[in-house]
Amino acid sequence: MPSKDFKNFQYTLPRVTGLVIHMEEKKTLVRLPQDRYDEAMKTVHVESIQLTNLMVVKILNATDEHVMALGANFSLQADSHLVLTGASFIVFSGALKASSPFMAKVNIVEDGIMVQLLSEVIDKLRHSLKEMQDFTITTGIPGGGGEELVMVEWVSRQNTPQQSSLCSPIDGLELDSFPSVKVHSGCDFTRKNVFRIQWTEVFFLGEGQQSSSRDLNKLTGELAKAFCQTLMPHLSKLSSDGFTFIGLRVNLDPDSVGYFTGSNQEYLPASIMSDLDDVLVPVIHTAANRHRGRSRSVELFFKVLRLL
């Protein structure tokens, strides 16, 4: 089952290849690629929600009736534009009560957007998406002067700027073709200091490897926790050295068991690697024994943030 706890804002999200979210003053634009619409419209198991590169209708069929979540891609257009801001995900919730004075509500949640709708409105949104029709949501209180628009549009990727490839910070390996899961608030060991480290995404690199495997989800959680806890004393140095986007790749193969980690396609400092060896090697070898005879390979992404 996918991790989904919207009350506490802890969940994993499906990401549609080519989907981008642009935010500007009083308007949010969700751009859905036309070529990701699944014409077969076949129902999939709920576990499929965790795979990236999914067709939009598969996500519609797999998600909860009153909650729909979509993970976005890095937007080259927003990154190079002073007015636009990119978001990494959007969640549509049909939990807005009929007694609310709001037509709809929109809030920023971490690096994404939460849109609260009346239940009948999210039903109309879901229908419009299945019919491949654009849909506009007006938020705020009628006549209150603070209305904002959330516009969901189907677009041709031929008319949008080419997105750059997503590459591993360890060695530049292109990861676009691998299934992945975005992780929000999944691993955050913030203390009362200037720095924090967050686990943001996991890629499944093994051939035919499924992200919905319960034991694999447990393994990635154990690895992320050990990795973050070990790096906590080193966050200041990592930040000053420019190592703020870090990858951890773990191989569990009958012929090769080990890990690689780095940032900016460089190894982390030797002193940090020594501390990681002490913590990660036992975790990895325990996992290798547990997964004996099965090949597993994952890469986890982490961000080091400086709190202002």
Task: Report strand %.
Answer: 25-35%
Largest sheet: 8 strands, antiparallel
Structural class: alpha+beta
One letter per element, helices H and strands E, the order comes to EEEEHEHEEEEHEEEEHHEEEHE
Can you give the helix content as a percent range? Answer: 10-25%
Quaternary structure state of the chains depicted: single chain
Number of strands: 17
Shape call = elongated
Mean pLDDT: 76
Strand order within the widest sheet? 1-2-12-13-17-14-15-16
Low-confidence stretches: 1-11, 39-54, 78-83
Radius of gyration: 20 Å
So how many helices?
6
GO cellular component, one term: early endosome membrane
Organism: Desmophyllum pertusum
Protein name: Zinc finger FYVE domain-containing protein 9
Domain Smad anchor for receptor activation-like C-terminal: 1-284
Could you walk me through the main structural features you see in this protein, from its secondary elements to its overall organization?
The chain is α+β, with helices and mostly antiparallel strands and 308 residues long. The protein is 22% helix and 32% strand. It is built from 6 helices and 17 strands. The strands form 3 sheets. An 8-stranded antiparallel sheet has the order 1-2-12-13-17-14-15-16. Strands 6-3-4-11-10 form a 5-stranded mixed sheet, covered by helices on one side. A hairpin with a 2-residue loop joins strand 3 (20-24) and strand 4 (27-33). Helix 4 (214-231) packs antiparallel against helix 6 (270-290). It is elongated and about 60 Å long.
